[in-house]
Each structure stands twice: as structure tokens, then as C-alpha cells.
Write a structure and sequence with these properties.
Strand content: 35-45%
Radius of gyration: 24 Å
Number of helices: 10
Largest sheet: 8 strands, mixed
Helix content: 10-25%
Strand order of the largest sheet: 29-30-32-31-33-34-35-36
Number of strands: 36
Shape: globular
Length: about 600
Amino acid sequence: MSSYRDFRPTLRFQATLAVSPDGRHVAFADDAAGQFNLTIQATAGGPPRRITDFRDHTVRRCSWHPDGSLLVVEADHRGDFLTRLYLIAPGEEEPHALTETAGATFCLPEGGGAFSADGHYLAYEGNDRDPAAQDIVIRTMKTGDVRRLYDGGGRMTLGGWSPDGSQLSFTLGTGGYDHVLHVVSVEDGEVRRLTQSTGASVYLGPWLPDGSGIVVRTDAGREFKGLAVVDAADGHLTWLDTPDWDVEAVALSANGKVLAWMVNVDGATELHARDLTTNDDLPVPALPLGQADALAVSPDGGFAVMRMSTPARPWNIAVVDLASGAVRWLTDSRPEAADPATFVEPTLVHYETFDGRTIPAYLYRPTNGTGPIGVLLSVHGGPTYQERPVYMYDGFYQYLASQGIAVLAPNARGSTGYGKPYQRLVYRDWGGDDLKDFGHAARYLQGLDWVDPTRIGLFGASYGGFVVLSCLARLPEFDWAAGVSMFGPSNLVTLAEATPKAYRSLVAEVIGDPDTEAERMIAQSPITYADQIRSPLFVWQGAQDTRVPQQESDQLVERLRARGVEVRYDVYPDEGHGLTKTENQIQARSDVAEFLIAHLRS
């Protein structure tokens, strides 16, 4: 008899990678050692080589030094998202800690390499001066001297170095997920604002090789994020690609010749590339139905490297030859024992909600079994996130399908990928109109003749966990068969009050301000209606979670147990906002799957 362990991948990867300056190696983070560590592998293929041996740290991001002699690594401790920076030279036994301020977060740049082109300086973000503000910090590599280049406050995200090392790009948050582009002079700290719109998002990419502009993804004046160049002198915007979908990743070869980017088409990834010397598009193949991310281009522009997954294939590192269009899998993570030939391909469906909008969703329908079957309504986190056609939750959906349970995974209002207005419908309205979308999802399922209407369950993590608790508490008329909430907030007021200072302005914009909106936030919190929960519930929580603290789960479980409601409550002392350790991931998902099978399988 199969178990979830048979479906989990032999290897997992973080959504980060970096190609070495000579193009011969790629660095990425995998969990071959039971925790996400830094690994190097030749881009031509060959055995991987692990170069860190963290036991309680999770590698989140990395960047090569221009001479290829070392890397800087961003890692947190036990999933606390308080990332620190480390230097590691391949062949050395121990990484060297660069930042050690307790309770502070240090991050590598978002839009490019962390090191200046000459390798003399390292730039990064740090909130060690003020927990509510990320500063730009420059470290002199030779001496170790540190200089705070920008400390102007605000929700800052660092981009990257100009080619001559004279400037750094960064964005400042202006509300919600909107950002405005700035550059700062490395010599004197002078800051110039380049984009003027305060109602648009700007996501930083690389500088052009001559320093004349910065490649960005932005929805300025548009519903979707397009690809553009912002002039570094006057901020003029020149569009490169304006699809009616979001551009979600961009990378440029070190020689400045080849630009590659990804477009999210209804959840599936399209890869594009252009020769900037001729302005001709390159013959990039159509990728298989799935998602790709962590895009990088080789220094000479000959190939692209990315992380990629399909509904039947776990995440792996892939190499795409940009001249021929050939796709080559560099790694070979696969299900432990399950046969991918038996896996279910999802169908993109749509259902109508209360206000006439059409909600897209991926439906995984088992091919085995007869008669009405149970269905899991799976809610993604975020809510600024998107359900994608990938090997979701490391084979979790495929295991449930093998056990005769279907999965409906909608992209309700608030999801990314469907335009700026759609995403913003959930701002300051968690537990409002979004909850109606999930009620209509249940009605859609009840209307399918192959669905058992008495066996509809719920699953979600973070915001998805909030929705699970909200559905159980506020939509009891559906008589849900069971629910699983993984680190889901139960009280929007206590969640906002416990938010780390660095995220409080964002929480106020997206969820609400507890000082001025407590009445509304309490009215839309699951804890307020906890006495209406009667369905069996599984609550999972990481004790080190700084985003949704354990108290969010504690207070709800206490209320339910006092009423005699069936609640299983698992707290993992060495995990934070998610599952990073391999054995913890296997155990937690196995337990959740068996709980759902017990309540949803006929």
C-alpha cells in the first residue's frame, strides 16, 4: 500500500540559483543533507558538490563573487526568516558569518549580483539599526569595514550595482505591494527618485551594460506587469514587452547581449529571450505545462538556467540552450517510488462567484474508482500568490488523487497573475468578499455529478489556513467533512499586533491597522465565530514562526477543545513559517494526508 513518502521527491530545491562568472557552474540550494544547503554543479552536467553543512539553517539566496572564488549566502535559523549573511569558499569547511546581530534581518539584493563588478564591495540590506527599516549597507571586502549608505527609512528593497559601481538601485514601498524606483550614489549617498507613479509596482532587474538604464518589471499604467527599461538619468520608461499577463522574472547575460524573461500565462510559464545587439527574439521552445522560476543567464548569453516543475515532475534545475532551444535537465529529482505515468494532469476550470466574476481553478480528478468521491478545496497562501500547475506540495495532490480524492485549487480574488485590480480586491478585506469566492467554490463542487457533497474538505497554509478557519467558522452550512490549517492566523488583530516591525506598514495596508480598524478586523476573524466550528480540524504550527506566531493557533485550539470539538494540534519546535527540514516535511504532510483520507474517502 502506497504512502505519501512514495510520492515525495528525492530532492527539493529552493527558488534560488546563481551561475558562476565563468558560466561553468551553477550554485543552488537543495535538501540532500536533510536541510537546505548550498550545492554547486557543473552546467555541463556531472555530480553535485555540497559546500555548506548547515543543520538548523536554511539557505534562501546566494551570489557569486566576480572572480568566482567565493559566494555570499543568505540563510535563516529554523525557519525564522531572520536571514543572516555568510561567506563561503568552495572547498572550505565552515562558512564565515558576516552579520550576527540578534533579531535583525539581512538580505542580498533582489535585482542582481551582491558584489560590485570589481569585487571590492558587497552590498546588502539590514534592519539592525531600526527593526522597522531596511538600510543599504556596503562592506569593503578587503578590510571588512562597513558603511551605511542609505538609512532613509521606509520599506526598502535593494536592487543591484550599476556596471561602473557608482550607484545602487532600490525601491521604496508606497502602499501595499507598490514600489517606487530610486538610485543612490555610492560616493556621497545622494538619492534620486526615478519613477513617479505611487500606484504602481516596480520590481528590479539588472542594469544595462552601459549603465544607461535599469530593466524592471512594472504595472505602471497597466493592469499587468510588463517588461521595461527605466532611464537611469531621467526615469523615462521604454517598454520591451507588454503581454496581457504578468512578466514574472528577468535576467541579462554579463556581456549584455541576451535578455531572458518569463511570462505567467494563466499559471503556466512561457520563456522568452532576445538578442539585444540585433533586437531579434531567440528560438526559445515552448516549455511543458508547468512553472519555472529562479531565472539566470550564462555570462556569454548561450544558455539559461532555471528551476522548473510540472504537475507530474518535481522541481528540478533545467538548462535551456538559447541558440537551439534544447531543454536539458541538470538534476533528476523524482518521486521516491510512485510511477509518474499514473499521475493526474490538472484541468483548468472556471466557476462564477457572487459578483459575476469568473474564478480560475486547477482541478485534479482521480481516474481510479467509481461513484461520487470526496474533494479537497485547497487554498493557496499569500494571498498575493497563485496556484500553479506544478508538483504541488511535493506530490501531496498526486498522493491524494491516488487515494481517490480530487483536489480543486482556485485562484480567488487576491491572487496574483490576473492583473493589479484583481489582486487588490482582497486588500483590507480578509474574510470579506474572498470568503464568498470559496463558498461558491463549494457550490461549484456540489454541482458536479461525480462529487460526494458530504465529503468536501479544506486545506490551506498561512493565508490559506486563515481561509480554512474562516470557512469552518463562518460557512458552517456546507457541513465541511474536515479542515487542515497550517500556521493559519485566527485573529487579525493579534496577528497585526505581533507582526515584526519591518512588516507592519505592509500589514496595515493589506490586512488592516489594529489601532484604527480593530472592529472590522475582529468581525472578519475566525476566532470570533469559533463556537460555530464543528468539523474535525487538524492544526499544524511551527514554534519559531515570526510571521504567524504560535499564539494564533493556540488561542483557537483552546477554544475548540473547551467545546469538545475534534482537533489534532501538532507543534514543531524546530520549524517556522513553513517546512524546511526534510523529515519534518515528510512527517507533517504524511500526517495531514492520512487525516484527510480518513475523512474524505468514501
